[in-house]
Write a structure and sequence with these properties.
Shape of chain A: elongated
Shape of chain B: elongated
Radius of gyration of chain A: 39 Å
Number of strands of chain B: 11
Largest sheet of chain B: 5 strands, parallel
Number of helices of chain B: 6
Number of domains of chain B: 2
Oligomer: heterodimer
Structural class of chain B: alpha/beta
CATH architecture of the largest domain in chain B: 3-Layer(aba) Sandwich
CATH superfamily of the largest domain in chain B: Response regulator
Helix content of chain A: 40-55%
Radius of gyration of chain B: 17 Å
Strand content of chain A: 15-25%
Distance between the termini of chain A: 21 Å
């Protein structure tokens, strides 16, 4: 259930992240595009008036909102205030590469730097240079003009919006995560409760049927011994045997609860060897090439019955789903016990942790017997022994690993 | 045999009482732990059959009393047998998991009774199992099934793989506890064998 909860939070967070990223990216992209267009309109104006905002003769602005215009408005490219606020330089180059300063109204760059900079842009057309400088290269009177304007101040609000967007997105993600964790607790409570009841129900069915079956058996035996057997007692015996088998199967598949653990030193090597040896013929029968490497004397403090169940399930699974090869490893690595089952498979690549969910089978199990309970049982056992279990398919190989 | 059966279920008591009586045994059925203790005080029993969910007194405490008095006991368990259960200090002579067939209990009772009366000793290396008191080297209690598994291994017979697991594991743990260097190991293509620890 925790896994489902984690998945829910992960996907919800991903949805919030994607939505916010798309929204904020669009806002910022529009913002920066508009800033570029504003800069281009200014460089266009400058280019149309020969590389300067001012005519040499009258020193009058040629901008649409030029000097004397009473228009008051925001500081767009058309604003009459633009003349005084634009920081720029324009150099013209003749065919021999001789530079001529057309206008120079900028403090951040010296005249010689400006000339070299303009020269370096001669082969360009229009664009950004040095992050916040917009340039335009154009031809006029057989000369190539390079105008570079400083848009740093104009871009500052755009950068601020970008930073605010990023911080805002992080804050929203964090906040939504906290909300999801809190909401998830109550939201998943009912699912956890249903899950617990399902486990309890399976355990109860198994437990509650045991005694009546034993009593029915005993009573039938008494009747047979006192009055001899007849068709009815034989029928009772057959049906009781059937039910006993069913209950025993249910017991084997009943969900493992931590409280059921009886800890003792368990010889895993021994149990694994027995499990493999007794199932060898089954591998042969299914034409599965079997390989195994079982280190000796690997012991664990755990429930012997449950540990045996792990190996039985892995081997049964391997027999069911291997195409032609199967292998098992039991070894100690860095103080941890590693159990690895691999086999060739037709499944496609990826993590397939859903096989540990109860009543879940993969597409290669369609024509096989089973309820999809075995590996969920294994997972519960591993978890109860403080271990980890994972499964994946890579390059046609199914790998299931348990670390304990 | 004089048998005491303690179980809270009336139907269980009545059916097995009748079944044992048909085999010529004398049965005293009781419903809870206090009745078990009371009956033990005023009568002599050859064996006690005890449910693990007997009310009023925890069944392990009753087993402890029976162990002290050296009265054999079979515990009817709702749980499957596992080696941890077999390591309990107070140990029944056998544990039988529900559901079981009637003959399993009747045969088990006869088998335990026969063993106790036989006064036989099983010896392997420096390990000795005494059948009269179900003791391993006079120090640790063992169950009927552990004795059977040990005996089969000495006689080079193969124990039932499906059922022997917990008993083999428990025996190995008991050997370790007694610092004995004998272990039961599964050898590939050979089956279970008694081997020395460094083999």
């Amino acid at each position: 259930m925790n896994k489902v909860k984690r998945k829910f939070i992960f996907y919800a967070e991903m949805a919030v992240f994607v939505l916010l990223t798309v929204l904020l990216s669009v806002i910022n992209a529009i913002n920066f595009t508009m800033a570029s267009e504003d800069a281009d309109r200014i460089t266009e104006m400058i280019s149309k008036s020969g590389g300067t905002f001012f005519r040499d003769d009258s020193n009058a602005a040629i901008t649409p909102g030029g000097r004397g215009n009473s228009r008051i408005g925001p500081m767009g490219p058309d604003s009459p205030e633009m003349n005084a606020s634009v920081r720029y330089f324009t150099y013209a180059f003749d065919e021999d590469g001789n530079a001529e300063k057309i206008d120079y109204r900028i403090s951040a760059v010296t005249e010689s730097e400006a000339e070299r900079w303009a020269e370096s842009l001669l082969n360009e057309d229009i664009g950004w240079t040095n992050v916040t400088y917009r340039y335009r290269v154009y031809e006029k009177n057989d000369k190539t003009y390079v105008t570079v304007i400083d848009q740093g101040r104009e871009l500052l609000p755009s950068y601020r919006i970008l930073i605010i967007s990023l911080c805002g997105e992080a804050a929203v993600l964090l906040l939504s995560f906290l909300i999801l964790v809190l909401v998830g607790k109550s939201l998943f409570h009912q699912f956890e409760e249903a899950d617990r009841k399902q486990k309890q129900f399976i355990a109860n069915v198994e437990s509650e049927f045991k005694l009546p079956l034993t009593i029915i058996n005993a009573n039938t035996e008494v009747i047979e011994r006192e009055n001899g057997s007849n068709d009815q007692t034989k029928s009772i015996n057959r049906q009781v045997r059937k039910m006993t088998k069913l209950v025993k199967n249910l017991a084997a598949l009943s969900i493992f609860e931590e409280k059921d653990i009886t800890v003792s030193k368990v010889d895993m090597s021994n149990i694994f060897n027995v499990a493999i040896d007794t199932k060898k013929s089954k591998f042969e029968k299914h034409n599965i090439e079997l390989e195994y490497s079982i280190d000796t004397d690997i012991t664990v403090d755990g429930d012997e019955r449950a540990i045996k169940q792990i190996f039985d399930e892995l081997i049964e699974n391997s027999i069911k789903f291997s195409v032609s090869k199967a292998s098992f490893i039991l070894q100690k690595q860095n103080g941890r016990i590693v159990i690895r089952q691999t086999n060739d498979t037709n499944l496609s690549n990826g993590s397939i942790d859903q096989i540990f969910d109860r009543f879940t089978t993969l597409e290669n199990a369609n024509d096989k017997d089973g309820y999809g309970l075995g590996l969920s049982y294994v997972k519960d056992i591993v978890k109860a022994h403080n271990g980890r279990i994972s499964a994946k398919v890579s390059g046609g190989i199914f790998t299931l690993q348990i670390d304990m | 045999m004089n048998i005491l059966i303690g179980d809270p279920d009336r139907d269980f008591l009545m059916s097995f009482k009748r079944l044992f009586e048909l085999s010529g045994h004398s049965i005293v059925p009781v419903f809870d732990g206090t009745q078990v203790i009371a009956r033990l005080a005023d009568s002599q029993f050859d064996i006690v059959i005890l449910s693990s969910n007997i009310p009023r007194i925890v069944y392990k405490d009753i087993v402890k009393v029976l162990n002290e008095d050296n009265i054999p006991v079979v515990v009817i368990s709702e749980r499957k047998i596992n080696s941890g259960m077999l390591m309990d200090h107070a140990l029944a002579n056998s544990y039988l998991s529900l559901p079981f067939l009637p003959y399993e209990l009747t045969e088990l009772v006869n088998e335990i009774n026969t063993k106790i009366k036989s006064d036989e000793k099983i010896q392997y290396s420096d390990i000795e199992m005494n059948l009269s008191d179900f003791m391993l080297c006079g120090k640790i209690r063992v169950t009927n099934e552990e004795i059977n598994v040990f005996k089969m291994l000495i006689e080079r017979e193969e124990p039932d793989h499906k059922r022997a697991g917990p008993y083999i594991n428990a025996l190995n743990n008991k050997f370790r506890k007694l610092n004995k260097n004998i272990r039961i190991k599964y050898l590939m293509n050979q089956g279970y064998r008694l081997v020395t620890d460094n083999e």
